Amino acid sequence: MRAAWVLLPALAALSAYYVYLPLPGAVSDPWKLMLLDATFRAVQQTCHLIHYLRLSHHLIVLNYLICTFDKLKSVSSEDIKITDAVFDGVEVRVFEPPAKGDESLKRSVVYIHGGGWALASARTSLYNNLCRIMAESLNAVVVSVEYRLVPEVCFPEQYHDALRATKHFLQPDVLAEYSVDPSRIAISGDSAGGNLAAAVCQQLSKDEDLTVRPKLQALIYPVLQAFDFNTPSYQQNMNMPVLPRYVMVNYWIDYINGDYGLAHELLVNNHTALNVGRALSFRARLNWTSLLPPSFKKSYKPVVQATGTAAIVERLPALLDVRAVPLLADDATLARQPRTYVLTCENDVLRDDGAMYARRLERAGVPVTLDHFHDCFHGCMIFTVWPTDFSAGVKTRDSYIKWLDENL
């Protein structure tokens, strides 16, 4: 009995030590975020152990666990018709609100889910709930794209899946089938899905054969570049839940089929050093010292290596491929983009990716809304259902839907 009285406080202290993280004072629901992050870390460590033992790929195990847990808390709706379909070989989930007597055509959103190009699904409740609420709130047809994931496929297959599904939906006969107004369509996505949405929008703007084009694009804390892993937000939030810097770098490595041994070189920007000739022409397109406002730059300094490893971009050309890194697109391409919404969170390594893209689009003459949240964190918008319900999730989701409602 005496041993138990000693062991229990020790276990409690160890648990508190594992859960506790120093967080900025303005973060919404800090203790809940710590618990969520601790859960993620414990699950990820277990998955990496399984990977190390060569029992399965850690991302396959992690995605299985996420989807299994996620299915336990789906929110249903009798008013929304939900069907699964295949658009040009790509699986999608379509959310259709009931027809109203005073309208013949509905607006629509093509939504591309996040998850580091490797996790989550259009079918799990986190995204099922989001798309259902969007369909209800906007009275819109929502098409959620179920692109293939890492490690099954790597870049550019996720991009091709998203592009094929979107182009199929934009065909006039398909839009007519779903009673969609061709002049009121948005392309949207969060995180890695925001990356794919931006890349798809850029490609659609170049396709001269398209008769229907999106009216809007809406990007939620998008990941848009792998050129500089030392922007102010990467430096400020390198250890922030839910997406520490090293995790984002590993997602990039998985996406472009790289080697984890390159992680350190990417973290210190050796792949875009001044002696890397292929990177020089892109440097001005991602000069955060001129693209970010002072409140984002704070007192951080650029990390630019004089001498790096040119072989990295030779081995991994996707690091400078605009289909993977839409922020590196030229000004002419950006000028063709539709009215844009970009949501960013202060406590997110990707904050500056979105802010820089918004600024470059503005300079190219595109109407842009940058919706910044000082107390929110990466991924928060999908966390709105117990036990992962955050006030930050509801706040960002409502702001996003409000913008779509006013502009679509």
From TrEMBL:
One of its GO terms (biological process) is lipid catabolic process. Belongs to the 'GDXG' lipolytic enzyme family. Keywords: Cell membrane, Endoplasmic reticulum, Glycoprotein, Hydrolase, Lipid degradation, Lipid metabolism, Membrane, Microsome, Signal-anchor, Transmembrane, Transmembrane helix. This is Neutral cholesterol ester hydrolase 1. It catalyses: a 1-O-alkyl-2-acetyl-sn-glycerol + H2O = a 1-O-alkyl-sn-glycerol + acetate + H(+); 1-O-hexadecyl-2-acetyl-sn-glycerol + H2O = 1-O-hexadecyl-sn-glycerol + acetate + H(+); cholesteryl (9Z-octadecenoate) + H2O = cholesterol + (9Z)-octadecenoate + H(+); a cholesterol ester + H2O = cholesterol + a fatty acid + H(+). It holds the Pfam family Abhydrolase_3. It is found in: Cell membrane; Microsome. Its main location: membrane. Its EC number is 3.1.1.71. It is an enzyme of class 3 (hydrolase). Residues 109-267, 320-381 form the Alpha/beta hydrolase fold-3 domain. GO terms for cellular component: plasma membrane. The active site is at residues 191, 348, 378. It is a single-pass type II membrane protein. InterPro entries: AB_hydrolase_3, AB_hydrolase_fold, Arylacetamide_deacetylase, GDXG_lipolytic_enzyme, Lipase_GDXG_put_SER_AS. GO terms for molecular function: acetylalkylglycerol acetylhydrolase activity. It comes from Sinosuthora webbiana.
